[in-house]
Endosialidase (Anaerotignum lactatifermentans), 137 residues
Amino acid sequence: MAVIEELIRKEDDGSISFGNYLMDEKKKVLDFEVQGDLYKVKTFREITKLEKNGKMLLEVVPGATVHNFLMSEKGVSFVVEAKEDLQMTLELEAETEYRILVDDVNLGKMKTNMAGKVTFSLEVQKEEYAVKISKIG
């Protein structure tokens, strides 16, 4: 896979791909519409952040490229591409337990805080990883 030169795009399967961790200067795209929702992406080598209708969905530090990001009531899935270790913060449902899988390896269960945020780290040993976060129950 490769970085997203246009910073954000809609994929044929309804998911979105976004981010370019190779840029030295911060760039952003505002009001990118997908099915009536407005997305905002900020990205460069230090951070990649995605918002939907003014609410933070995902923040990756340092920057990354995220492919096929798909969110539903049951959870979220995407492929993340980066060159160095990452810390990811997602805003999900408040005080809810989720199972985190990376390349089908179970990282365990995590419970979101009162704001619905969950944060985890990923040691990068290859270029991309499939991430799936599923609501338990």
